[in-house]
Structures are given as C-alpha cells and as structure tokens.
Amino acid sequence: MEKRTITVVPYTTEWADTFERLADIYRARLGDLITGIEHVGSTSVPGLAAKPVIDMDILIREPAGLPPVVAVLERLGYTWRGDLGIPGREAFGRNADTSPLDGKDTLWPAHNLYVCVEGCVSLRNHLQLRNYLRQHPDAARQYGALKQELAAKYPHDIDSYVEGKTAFITGILAHTGMGPDVLKDITAQNKATK
Hints:
- By secondary structure, the chain is an alpha+beta fold.
- Helices cover about 45% and strands about 15% of the residues.
- The chain has helices at about 15-30, 65-75, 120-135, 135-155, 160-175, 180-190; strands at about 35-40, 55-60, 80, 90-95, 110-115.
- The protein has a five-stranded mixed β-sheet, sandwiched between helices.
- Strand 3 (about 80) and strand 4 (about 90-95) form a beta hairpin.
- The chain is globular and about 40 Å long.
- The two termini are about 15 Å apart.
- The relative contact order is 0.15.
- GO terms for molecular function: transferase activity.
- This is GrpB domain, predicted nucleotidyltransferase, UPF0157 family.
- Keywords: Transferase.
- InterPro entries: GrpB/CoaE, NT_sf.
C-alpha cells in the first residue's frame, strides 16, 4: 500500500468557501438534529499554512442524538468509523470524492468530518486552538512553520507528523486554561502507535 505524502501548503480563502458549501449541505439535511457546525483545524485559521484537508465538527446535544445523524450522513455518502479512541467525537469517512452527495456529482476536496457532543474535550480542544491561533497571528506563523518542517522531515509518516505537533498544541491549550489531566489525555491520543 502506497503511503500518501504529507503536504503543507499556504493558506487559501478557498478553504473557508468550501467549508461553507459543505456546511450548507449538512445544515439542510440534518436540520434540528444538530446544534451547529464548526470549521476547525488549520484550514480554519486565516494565513495559516496547512494540509489541504478541511476539518469539520458537527455538534449534537448528547450522545443519544447520534443515531439519526449517522443515518443521514450515511445517505450522504459517509461511513461511520466510531470514535477512533477519542471519546465524544465520532469520525466519518467518505465513500467517494462525491461525498457528500448533492445530486450534482460535485467532486469535493478532501475533508475530515466529525460529530461531537457539545462540550466534549475534543470539541473544546479544536475550538480553543482555532480561536487562539486566529487571535495570535505570530503563534499561527510559528505553528505553520513547525508543520512545514515536520512535513519535510516525515513526508510519509503521519503518526510522527502528528506527534511532532503535540507539544506546540498542548502548550497553547494549557495557556487557554485546559487542565493537566485533559492535556495528558490529548498527548496520549497524539502519540505515534508504531
């Protein structure tokens, strides 16, 4: 199996536009089943270099609200992959480049889709990091440079790439008030499993 090359590219406003187009589809199909949709990850921070993959968190009030959301997302062309070891965050994989199915056979850019219970650690992690980087351009530039360095050092090793970002991320999260027990869990989740 050929490994994908990790690529970090300069920011483009197309990422925000793509997020809005995708979010419109999810809102239209999920309606009252969800409480919101957040553009998270590096593509959500203006000016930040990133892997060209849109990360999105769909919000639900409680875990009991997950089954009907799963059913709708499956009809849109996604496969539910479970929490992948991160409590409160359910991952969905695309079945094809046309997922979400919009009736027009649109080829969508790469994206990661998660359903998160409001207030869960994963969601707080995503939002606190995004908001901090949006408000602190110098930190965003440092993070972008780190990601470019890691992509060059580990072009085919996503585990090492992710692990290499962890200290920077947890440093920001500690600064924003996330507690040591939560930071320990985040660090463990980002450890390479070699």
